[in-house]
Automatic annotation (TrEMBL):
Origin species: Massilia cavernae
Single GO MF annotation: oxidoreductase activity, acting on the CH-OH group of donors, NAD or NADP as acceptor
Stored PANTHER family: ALCOHOL DEHYDROGENASE
Keyword Oxidoreductase appears in the UniProt entry: yes
CDD domains referenced in this protein's UniProt entry, alphabetically: SDR_c5
InterPro entries noted in UniProt: NAD(P)-bd_dom_sf, Sc_DH/Rdtase_CS, SDR_fam
Gene3D superfamilies in the cross-refs: NAD(P)-binding Rossmann-like Domain
Protein name in UniProt: SDR family oxidoreductase
Length: 248
């Protein structure tokens, strides 16, 4: 299989690339930080093709896709993994630019990548799109505001893809993890405050990027007649909060 992964310079994306290559597949590893991609490509060898690409920039996507060598163009699996959360401030205080960046990356970027790669899958009558959602798209929490809303978009977009793709042979999955450590997610969310990022995982045994990569691999290697619509994972230590009732 040829697997196109966005956000492969860190976290889930890099681990997914390792997992697919270890199992004999080829991966296009894309992200903005080309030096990171070069390091991963050196680790993975000829089975990995680094491709610098910013999902928020239509021209960057078009240029990158145009540079794909002919033998790498038949993409069997698109993993829309590039994404981010910025900040945990309440809605009335959160910087508008952070909201715009999350929407541009997690929603518009993901939709744009899908629109670019989906038609060839439909033409061939096979393919799979795995979109990285989140538990934040299912359950609200304080400070989740726009991040959670972007992940709800990811889930509903995926299900609407399923509606359009029925009968085409092309599959789509929303993969929605909960608390997952060992990636740059919280370092990005807390804008480089690594101590605050580390605190998120204190005293927990969170999911790992390997757990998510293995789940993506399992989804991609199911028989072609099986579609996982949406799958949610949490670490065993994570649960649900009670309703928050302010009493006077
Ligand atoms: P990381 O921060 O470790 O990795 C995010 C990746 O996205 C990086 O490779 C980054 O690369 C890339 N990226 C960010 N913006 C862009 C952009 N504009 N264009 C292209 N690539 C971009 O995060 P995780 O691996 O933890 O998260 C991956 C996905 O999983 C995200 O969508 C996240 O929302 C989701 N998720 C994460 C959870 C967690 O707890 N970790 C839980 C649930 C969902 P670069 O900066 O080089 O462009
Ligand atoms: C990441 C999980 O709980 O930080 O999507 O929103 S959470």
């Amino acid at each position: 299989m040829i697997v196109f992964i966005t956000g492969a310079s860190a976290g889930f994306g890099a681990e997914m690339a390792r997992t697919f290559v270890k199992n004999g597949h080829q991966v296009v590893i894309s992200a903005r930080r080309s030096e990171r991609l070069a390091e991963l490509a050196a680790e993975l060898g000829e089975a990995a093709l680094p491709l610098e690409l910013d999902v928020t920039d239509p021209a960057s996507i078009a240029d990158a896709l145009a540079m794909l060598p002919q033998s790498w163009r038949q993409i069997d699996v698109l993993i829309n993994n590039a994404g981010l959360a910025l900040g945990t401030k309440p809605a009335q205080e959160a910087p508008l630019e952070d909201w715009e960046t999350m929407i541009a990356t997690n929603c518009a970027g993901l939709a744009r990548m899908t629109r670019a790669i989906l038609p060839a899958m439909v033409e061939r009558g096979s393919g799979l799109v795995i979109n990285l959602g989140s538990v934040a798209g299912h359950y609200p929490y304080p400070g989740g505001n726009v991040y959670g809303a972007t992940k709800a978009f990811v889930e509903q977009f995926t299900l609407n893809l399923r509606a359009d793709l029925a009968g085409t042979g092309v599959r789509a999955t929303n993969l929605a993890p909960g608390l997952c450590g060992g990636t740059e997610f919280s370092n990005v969310r807390f804008k480089g405050d690594d101590a605050a990022a580390a605190k998120v995982y204190e005293g927990t045994t969170p999911l790992t990027a390997k757990d998510i990569a293995e789940t993506a691999y399992w989804i991609a290697t199911l028989p072609p007649h099986v579609n996982v619509n949406s799958i949610e994972l949490m670490p065993t230590c994570q649960g649900f909060a009670p309703f928050n009732i302010k009493r006077v």
